[in-house]
């Protein structure tokens, strides 16, 4: 009897998840339909207008899509050189030692810090440093937001990558050492091929974390509704424009913000699908 109840619960859970996902997409599509009907889907996606004047309203998502993709890509580029060494340090070089346990605890602590704390630190500390180094004239901007995003996603990528590195069978590594391989060769020819798909999935999850980040980016990106022409300029992401203007929006503007939310949902879904396809291909290589 207990097995039957457990099986029913599993089936209900499996059915419920697609229903929730479909419901989210449906509700966003219905609420965003006003913007798509007014401007057209592709015009809305590729327009850089954001005019809120009554009677002359014109909305486009391109500046915010660009800001989102730029900050996410930069954060990932800055994250990789830090997260991979940390993962190798805790998962291979000092596996099982006290120093690895301490570093792992610190990484978990960093992963659990609320995003608003990162935002406050970036706003009051990092902005001044960026201005002093002449990396950003006003302190806030694409580069500043990307740098803090990178710090935020390093713990996710490093912790998950370390777990996959630890899962590589010891027999394979010992066999490579017995054949005269160096530590670097074992990492390159044994660990990375075996744990590569898992490490890649860790970075896909980190990308998803960066794409949807709201408060930190809102505090540091400058919040200007313009196409970013350099990394030093201010801008907005899809999440930050919604956070900034949703509370006071109505009518066509509200519909446009919901449309941006729908686009963010779709972009995240597409990136995750592409990531899963690449992971499957890597497993069969």
TrEMBL record:
Membrane topology reported for the UniProt record: Multi-pass membrane protein
Record carries keyword Cytoplasm: no
Span of domain ABC transmembrane type-1: 65-275
Cellular component GO terms held in the UniProt record: plasma membrane
This protein's record includes keyword Magnesium: no
Parts of the chain that traverse the membrane: 9-30, 64-88, 100-121, 141-165, 186-207, 257-279
GO biological process, one term: phosphate ion transport
UniProt superkingdom: Bacteria
Chief location category: membrane
Matches recorded under InterPro entries: MetI-like, MetI-like_sf, Phosphate_PstC, Phosphate_Transport_Permease
Listed Pfam families: BPD_transp_1 (PF00528)
Any one GO molecular function term: phosphate transmembrane transporter activity
Localization per Swiss-Prot or TrEMBL: Cell membrane
Keywords: Cell membrane, Membrane, Phosphate transport, Transmembrane, Transmembrane helix, Transport
Record function comment: Part of the binding-protein-dependent transport system for phosphate; probably responsible for the translocation of the substrate across the membrane.
Homology family: Belongs to the binding-protein-dependent transport system permease family. CysTW subfamily.
Protein name: Phosphate transport system permease protein
Species of origin: Candidatus Phocaeicola excrementipullorum
Gene name for this UniProt entry: pstC
């Amino acid at each position: 009897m207990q097995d039957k109840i457990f099986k029913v619960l599993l089936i209900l859970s499996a059915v419920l998840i697609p229903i929730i996902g479909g419901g989210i997409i449906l509700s966003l599509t219905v609420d965003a339909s006003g913007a798509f009907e007014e401007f057209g889907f592709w015009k809305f996606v590729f327009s850089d207008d954001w005019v809120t004047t009554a009677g002359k309203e014109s909305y486009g998502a391109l500046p915010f899509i660009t800001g989102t993709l730029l900050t996410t890509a930069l954060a990932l580029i800055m994250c990789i050189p830090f997260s991979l060494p940390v993962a190798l340090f805790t998962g291979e070089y000092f596996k099982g030692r006290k120093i690895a346990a301490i570093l792992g605890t610190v990484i978990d602590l960093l992963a659990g810090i609320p995003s608003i704390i990162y935002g406050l630190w970036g706003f009051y500390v990092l902005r001044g440093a960026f201005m002093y180094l002449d990396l950003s004239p006003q302190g806030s901007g694409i580069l500043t937001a990307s740098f803090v995003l990178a710090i935020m996603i390093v713990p996710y990528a490093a912790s998950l990558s370390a777990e996959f590195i630890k899962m590589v069978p010891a027999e394979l590594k010992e066999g490579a050492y017995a054949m005269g391989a160096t530590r670097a060769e074992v990492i390159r020819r044994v660990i990375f091929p075996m744990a590569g798909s898992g490490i890649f999935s860790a970075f896909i999850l980190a990308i998803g974390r960066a794409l949807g980040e709201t408060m930190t980016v809102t505090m540091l990106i400058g919040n200007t509704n313009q196409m970013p022409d350099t990394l030093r300029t201010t801008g907005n992401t899809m999440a930050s424009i919604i956070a900034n203007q949703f509370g006071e929006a109505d009518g066509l503007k509200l519909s446009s913000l919901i449309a941006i939310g729908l686009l963010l949902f779709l972009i995240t879904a597409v990136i995750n699908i592409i990531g899963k396809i690449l992971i499957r291909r890597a497993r069969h290589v």
